UniProtKB/TrEMBL annotation:
<keyword id="KW-0238">DNA-binding</keyword>
<protein>
    <submittedName>
        <fullName>Helix-turn-helix domain-containing protein</fullName>
    </submittedName>
</protein>
<dbReference type="InterPro" id="IPR006141">
    <property type="entry name" value="Intein_N"/>
</dbReference>
<keyword id="KW-0805">Transcription regulation</keyword>
<dbReference type="GO" id="GO:0003677">
    <property type="term" value="F:DNA binding"/>
</dbReference>
<feature type="domain" description="HTH cro/C1-type">
    <location>
        <begin position="42"/>
        <end position="95"/>
    </location>
</feature>
<dbReference type="Pfam" id="PF01381">
    <property type="entry name" value="HTH_3"/>
</dbReference>
<keyword id="KW-0804">Transcription</keyword>
<dbReference type="InterPro" id="IPR010982">
    <property type="entry name" value="Lambda_DNA-bd_dom_sf"/>
</dbReference>
<dbReference type="GO" id="GO:0016539">
    <property type="term" value="P:intein-mediated protein splicing"/>
</dbReference>
<dbReference type="InterPro" id="IPR001387">
    <property type="entry name" value="Cro/C1-type_HTH"/>
</dbReference>
<dbReference type="InterPro" id="IPR052359">
    <property type="entry name" value="HTH-type_reg/antitoxin"/>
</dbReference>
C-alpha cells in the first residue's frame, strides 16, 4: 500500500522508510500545472477517464461550473484540487474507487 502526503505547496510525496519521495505524475503537464497549462491538462484527464464534464464534476464533488472554468482557462485548480488532479493523473482508477466509496454527509 502506498502512503501519500499532501504538502502545503500542493506537491504530493510518497512516504517510504520515513522519507518523503516526490510523486511523479503520469501526465507530465500536471507537474507544471500552471494556470495557462491547466486547461488542456484537466480536459485531457477527464477525457482519458472517458467522463463528461458533469460526470467528472460529480466524481470530484465539485460543481460542473468549476470543471468548465478549469477547462476554459478562466480559473486554475489550487491546493487540494490541484493535488487531487495530480493523483488522478497518476492512478485514476484508484482515486475514483476511493471517492465513490466515501460516505455522503447527512
Amino acid at each position: 500500500m502506498q502512503r501519500l502526503r499532501l504538502k502545503a505547496d500542493g506537491r504530493i510525496v510518497e512516504l517510504r522508510d520515513g522519507q518523503e519521495i516526490p510523486l511523479v505524475p503520469a501526465h507530465p503537464a500536471v507537474a507544471a500545472m500552471q494556470p495557462s497549462a491547466t486547461q488542456p491538462v484537466v480536459r485531457d484527464l477527464r477525457r482519458r477517464a472517458q467522463l463528461t464534464q458533469l460526470e467528472f464534476a460529480a466524481k470530484l464533488g465539485v460543481p460542473v461550473e468549476t470543471i468548465r472554468n478549469w477547462e476554459q482557462g478562466k480559473r486554475a485548480p489550487r491546493g487540494p484540487a490541484r493535488a487531487l488532479l495530480a493523483v488522478i493523473a497518476h492512478s485514476p482508477e484508484t482515486v475514483f474507487a476511493a471517492l465513490s466509496s466515501q460516505p455522503t454527509a447527512a
